[in-house]
Amino acid sequence: MVTLIKDDYSLLQSLGRFGINLGFGDKTVKEVCEEQGVDTYTFLAIVNFYINGTADMTDTRYVSMPTVLHYLKSSHEYFISFQLPRIRKGLEAALDEKDNLARLILKLYDEYAHEIQQHMRYEEKTVFPYVEALSNGETNANYDVHTFSRHHPQVTAKLKELKNIIIKYLPSDPMRNNQLTDTLYNIYNMEEWLTMHSQVEDKIFTPAIRYMENKLKQDDVSVKISEMISKNPNNDEALSDREKEVIVALVQGMTNKEIADHLYISVNTVITHRRNIAKKLQIHSPAGLTIYAIVNNLIDISSVKL
Hints:
- The protein has two domains: 163 residues, no CATH class; 72 residues, Orthogonal Bundle (Arc Repressor Mutant, subunit A).
- The chain has 14 helices and no strands.
- The chain starts with a helix and ends in an 11-residue tail after the last helix.
């Protein structure tokens, strides 16, 4: 862990957001993470993103959502409770509030601070509880990761505008120049970290949510089909031989016309058989019929194109 920090000291800011305390001696990254209750894979995925700017090697199946949520919540607390007030105080000390331009700069900063607080509070009130519910196997018909993506704008535009105004137009005051330069440096630093924070959400957090959603949907379909089969284990006996032949043909991907030609019956008769099959089995999708056919030995799984 020490070697990792020596290679990129900016990672020091990330440690606290993961809940990792200093004083870990010569322990490895894995040892430190396990000792302090942080998922090692997720820690390295986010750290790698900060260092290399890519999440291409991150497998969302192995991302720990509790670790990601802790990281994001701590990041919000850091920005809202520490970084934003700190820069506001720096601007107050560096600017003459009697000057109209200085007042406009402070107003612009306050608008930016309000915007970012609203953005983060939205995530804490809506997104994080949704993800925690997903982790417990609960879905929400009124919300999904697509909705989150549409409400996830970049939040650094006003910050860029602010620093450009300070650099280009603010009259230099030798008595406050050091304070202003230091505050401007902090603004640059915060802009960089906020951009990375937003990208972590886009490249790691959002794909992990999407994976959870898809997995729950697949599990839900499998459970429903299993329940259908278990409720009527002898459903295959309720089907006629011709209906079984129709199921096999459907599973093999034949159209109604192809089934009719294959079984020497009319297309209308095929449609009637399909209606009766759906009524008897309460299964309406091709995937559901495929699972039914495999479970009831109407077709061998090796012959099915999955």
